[in-house]
């Protein structure tokens, strides 16, 4: 599980032993392929359980005389055949918004009247402010716009990473993001958890989170390519992942603590939103470690690809000067660390 990585420039600050993540990248590719295929199968055969935001339906706004008990209203509707009703406060604790999916063969007026009768039998202390019907055409437009939002985000990321790093890194990052999105959607397909606009927002947030994690690793890979004199691309990448491991673990854990609290305590409205982010955090952390880096390595990224001169017009002498400057700066930092360590050791022995 561990491998020794040669790093003559940064040996004073890096441990000799490193976890060999890249040794298992073949198994990680197989695992990812299985999860992606299972997700696609779920999306094809079961599909997503779209919420009213996408399917259309009836929207009813009520104003209560006193603070409304959302859970009581929700249970009352479920007990009378409105299992798919979405109930939430709207503006204040007295205002309630109810959304109901369309029912085949039943018009919206009949559905809303029946719902009002059910609620009045339980508590008549409210008035109806408005009833609106959202047609399926609006839902189709939202579905199309949501898919386009994800596609545009991925294209923008591809261009950004290609400009900031190298094209092979951008391919790795986008493949990792597609991997994360497909698996998260697959979880919703297999569990049939409701997919609404809040979940779509969570999917976009997962893309941003996973990309941030990947960029941090890639940035360290680039830095190591420029400062580590020995070591293959696999070893340099492995070193970068180990250097960022503590940061990745702390970021993921602190984010998960908040999301788990939202999942269990945030209520039904935010439940699926938190679920999507929890799945995305796990999958995104995994993909930034294995998928993105493995794709870049498989495409043959090397030190020469990242040692481009700062200006296109720079000649061979300028490139050599730049490399020499970077090397001397790293050597100076190493000597300073060694001197500080020796001073601390001498002070400890003097005591």
UniProtKB/TrEMBL annotation:
GO biological process terms, alphabetically, are: intracellular protein transmembrane transport; protein targeting; protein transport by the Sec complex
Q: Name one GO molecular function term.
A: protein-transporting ATPase activity
What range(s) does the Protein export membrane protein SecD/SecF C-terminal domain occupy? 117-300
Its domain of life? Bacteria
InterPro entries linked to this entry = SecD/SecF_arch_bac, SecD/SecF_bac, SecD/SecF_CS, SecD_SecF_C, SecD_SecF_C_bact, SecF_bac
Keyword annotations of the record: Cell membrane, Coiled coil, Membrane, Protein transport, Translocation, Transmembrane, Transmembrane helix, Transport
In this entry, which stretches build a coiled coil? 311-349
Q: Tell where it localizes.
A: Cell membrane
Subunit note: Forms a complex with SecD. Part of the essential Sec protein translocation apparatus which comprises SecA, SecYEG and auxiliary proteins SecDF-YajC and YidC.
As for what it does, the entry says: Part of the Sec protein translocase complex. Interacts with the SecYEG preprotein conducting channel. SecDF uses the proton motive force (PMF) to complete protein translocation after the ATP-dependent function of SecA.
Q: Which PANTHER family match?
A: PROTEIN TRANSLOCASE SUBUNIT SECF, PROTEIN-EXPORT MEMBRANE PROTEIN SEC
Xref: HAMAP family: SecF_B (MF_01464_B)
Name the UniProt record assigns to this protein? Protein-export membrane protein SecF
Q: Which organism is it from?
A: Thiosulfativibrio zosterae
């Amino acid at each position: 599980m561990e491998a020794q990585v040669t790093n003559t420039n940064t040996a004073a600050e890096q441990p000799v032993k490193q976890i060999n993540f890249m040794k298992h990248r073949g198994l990680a590719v197989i695992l990812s392929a299985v999860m992606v295929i299972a997700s696609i199968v779920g999306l094809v055969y079961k599909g997503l359980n779209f919420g009213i935001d996408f399917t259309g339906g009836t929207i009813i706004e009520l104003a209560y005389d006193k603070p409304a008990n959302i859970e009581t209203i929700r249970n009352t509707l479920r007990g009378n055949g409105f299992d798919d009703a979405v109930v939430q406060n709207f503006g204040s604790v007295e205002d309630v918004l109810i959304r109901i999916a369309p029912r085949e063969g039943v018009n919206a007026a009949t559905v809303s009247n029946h719902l009002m009768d059910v609620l009045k039998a339980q508590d008549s202390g409210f008035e109806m402010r408005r009833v609106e019907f959202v047609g399926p055409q609006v839902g189709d437009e939202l579905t199309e716009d949501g898919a386009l939002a994800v596609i545009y985000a991925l294209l923008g990321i591809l261009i950004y990473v290609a400009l900031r790093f190298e094209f092979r890194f951008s391919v790795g990052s986008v493949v990792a993001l597609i991997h994360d999105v497909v698996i998260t959607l697959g979880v919703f397909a297999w569990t049939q958890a409701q997919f609404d606009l809040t979940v779509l927002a969570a999917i976009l947030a997962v893309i941003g989170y996973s990309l941030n994690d990947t960029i941090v690793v890639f940035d360290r890979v680039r830095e190591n390519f420029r400062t580590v004199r020995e070591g293959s691309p696999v070893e340099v990448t492995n070193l970068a992942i180990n250097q960022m491991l503590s940061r990745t673990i702390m970021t993921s854990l602190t984010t998960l603590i908040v999301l788990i609290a939202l999942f269990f305590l945030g209520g039904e409205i935010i439940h699926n939103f938190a679920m999507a982010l929890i799945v995305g955090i796990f999958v995104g952390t995994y993909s930034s470690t294995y998928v993105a880096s493995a794709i870049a390595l498989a495409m043959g990224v090397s030190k020469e690809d990242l040692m481009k001169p700062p200006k296109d017009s720079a000649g061979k002498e300028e490139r050599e000067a730049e490399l020499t400057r970077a090397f001397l700066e790293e050597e100076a930092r190493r000597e300073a660390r060694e001197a500080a360590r020796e001073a601390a050791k001498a002070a400890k022995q003097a005591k």
